Amino acid sequence: MDGPIRIEPREGFWRIVLDRPDRLNAFDRAMHEALAEALSRAEAERSAAALLEQRRAAEAEAASEAAARVAIEEQLAHTAREALAREQSLRQLAETKAELEAQVTKEIEDALLARFDYVIGSNHGFALPDGTFASPWWSSLPPEWGDRPQELMEVMVHNLCDLVSTMDVQIVAHSTFTPAALYALEHHVERLAEDHALAARLADGLGGIAGLRVEAPQTNMVWVTVDGGRGPALLAHLAARGVLATGDDTLRLVTHLDVDRAGVDHAVVAVHDFFEGA
User: Does residue 90 belong to any structural domain of this protein?
Assistant: First the structure.
């Protein structure tokens, strides 16, 4: 402002200069009025600045509250989605369990049971060669076992036969089958005669070996008893030749989908080599 008072705005304050050098800044009425006006203007602008700052603070607080509400709404939506996913998962599990229970409680015909040396099953997991466990509630076979259902069933039978050997009873009855067993029964029943014929061929090839007693097979399983406590050594010898057998001094050899005539002949040669090299 022009006159005997000069206002110089500074950062955060005003500088009020008495501008009457010709009168050595003598304070008269005009200067008094100009100073009062300058002070009133400064107070008005200070109040306006304070109001502006308050408005800005209020707007920032409102924005913060809005962001918080959005975050809460997003968290609630995420929680709702997770709850829905859990509910769907539990519903799917319940449906899968119901389907499997319907499968494993199917009536098994006597003619089917007669093919087994043990009427045996389990509703708990069983150990796999890689150290993991198979579940009786699998709705389908895992990818690594998808093309080897018969082999997976052999692992299950081996586990259960070990269980039987530790019990006082000779037969363990239960209606549960794993998916591998169901798959074999539903897809390969018509070719069981081939497995039985190969089992007979295996038993014939092992007959007459001194120190080895062979039971006549009734199914696709051949049971042999090794004299002199040499069963574990024979097991190790067969494993080195790629022949799978289970047991101790009484061994079980099984023909199945993955065993052909050449495999049977290879097993016979491996057993002969063991006893002839003794």
Answer: no
